[in-house]
Amino acid sequence: MELVGFTFFVLATLNFLTVNSRPAGVHLRNMESFIQAVQQVEDSYPGLSALALVRALRRTAGHDDPMTIHFLGASYNLNDTEGLEGSILNATSFSFFDKAIHHIVTDHGEERGVVLAPDGTTVALAPLLLGIESGLKAKMEGTEALGIFPLTLGRPLGLSFLSLQDIPPSLRLGPNGCWDNVEQPRVFKLSRPATLATDAVINGGMDGVILGLHLSRLPASEQPQALSEILRGYYNFTLTEKQGIDNVTTQISPRRRELSRSLLEPLDLHSAVMTTLALVWKLEKTEWIAQDTGLRKAVQDGLQTFTHKYLDCPQIIPRCQWGAKANRDTPIPLSLPLQFLYVHHTYEPSSPCLSFSSCSLNMRSMQRFHQDDRGWDDIGYSFVVGSDGYIYEGRGWNHVGRHTRGHNAIGYGVSIIGNYTATLPSRHAMDLLRHKLALCAVNGGVLTANFTIQGHRQVVNYTSCPGDALFSEIRSWEHFRE
């Protein structure tokens, strides 16, 4: 059916997120700076509750749309926010509170209202804070946190699926982007035109679900921590060789996707998104949009993409984030799907990397060795697995690597950072490779369903890679072949 009004609705929604480019300012846009600004307000108001503060932040940011008011109430009618605005606006030289919570994308592809987390991922603050507020409100009132999914993920996913029905489902979500400088981040540029659910919005939404539900389920006798402590505990963790990710029992950001899967799996996501859209239209008095005959299929197709890209696939840190240099020649495209997955260890670096900064340093070191000492065009591996909870992009899904002599064009080469001659990688790192990356490749159509896993040593006779301990381990994996 012809829906001229619907087109107007979509354009108006996109216009809400897209503005003319303006100077972004000189403030660092990382999570730690935001947490420090939050703590300054808390220090000015001893005993300030996390709920009062997130409400005041919402009031300062002007996030009082009908759906937010429906679930959380109007911030300007909440007495516990009075008097905080001046402190919020003057608390920090970073000026995050009057700028960074507003999510917009400029006409030049710069995404604002997002911050760089210590783990190397980018997070939109608005859905994160809405999830936290929803959880805190439910905890205070002793009620179910009904608004968490609609406010964090349901609304951006549903509107993105709805507004982009005419393009392939794979492009209806995202994209990711790159920071100008991960040490001093100020500008985040997207890799392609934005949808209403960029990677940063989805990351923030997932984190809002995780933290919001956790807070809503605290025992009645347990009071929530201060907002700065809630954020710091989730984002600013420290992994060590003795206390690696396998041993962490608390919620931390590298577990975002597995935690989100466990929380979202019990839901009927299709019904949840459709219910969210129906509420949006009711509150906006645009119920006629529900007459779109392609709506249910658009949501179904979109959720398949969401599940594959953000729940089945592991988070992959892109080349620009770890500081890769350009390939020195024209990359050679692979003929997909491939039949083999070759497992490596780096040997050098010999120790597992446990943070975004150390893994990125290792990636740059290996690329420099491969390009300068060995004379290759680029880092050899297709992907590299860290012990920080993430996979790092090397040559990627589409280009021939330089990892397994004589076999580079028929398989992906994936290496785990460290020397695994006598010890094994973390279980989490091995699971990222064995289950997450492999499943992602098969479902994405770049690896055959009956693919073969082999160790580097099996096809190249001059190496002991991937180390005796790791090779012994992978021999027990499904898809391994002698």
Keywords:
482 residues; alpha/beta; six-stranded mixed beta sheet; three-stranded mixed beta sheet; 17 helices; globular; disordered N terminus
Q: How would you describe what is shown here?
A:
The chain is an alpha/beta fold and 482 residues long. Helices cover 43% and strands 10% of the residues. It has helices at residues 4-17, 31-44, 50-61, 66-72, 84-90, 125-141, 148-163, 199-216, 227-235, 256-264, 269-284, 295-312, 319-322, 356-373, 427-443, 456-459, 468-474, and strands spanning 18-19, 104-106, 111-112, 114-116, 122-124, 177-179, 188-190, 316-317, 338-345, 383-385, 391-393, 411-416, 447-455. Mean pLDDT is 90; it is low at 1-25.
In short:
This protein has 482 residues and is of the alpha/beta class. Helix content is 43%, strand content 10%. Strands 8-11-10-12-9-13 form a six-stranded mixed beta sheet, with helices on both faces. Strands 1-2-3 form a three-stranded mixed beta sheet.
- Overall geometry comes to globular
User: Within the largest sheet, what's the order of strands?
Assistant: 8-11-10-12-9-13
Number of strands: 13
**Helix/strand/pairing class, anyone?**
alpha/beta
- How many DSSP helices? 17
* Spans where pLDDT lies below 50 across 5 or more residues: 1-25
Mean pLDDT: 90
Gyration radius, rounded: 23 Å
% residues in beta strands:
5-15%
Cα-to-Cα separation, first versus last residue: 57 Å
The residue fraction in helices comes out at 40-55%
SSE diagram, text form:
Elements: H1 4-17, E1 18-19, H2 31-44, H3 50-61, H4 66-72, H5 84-90, E2 104-106, E3 111-112, E4 114-116, E5 122-124, H6 125-141, H7 148-163, E6 177-179, E7 188-190, H8 199-216, H9 227-235, H10 256-264, H11 269-284, H12 295-312, E8 316-317, H13 319-322, E9 338-345, H14 356-373, E10 383-385, E11 391-393, E12 411-416, H15 427-443, E13 447-455, H16 456-459, H17 468-474
Parallel strand pairs: 1-2, 8-11, 9-12, 9-13, 10-12
Antiparallel strand pairs: 2-3, 4-5, 6-7, 10-11
Helix pairs in contact: 2-9, 3-5, 3-6, 6-7, 6-8, 7-8, 7-11, 7-12, 8-10, 11-12
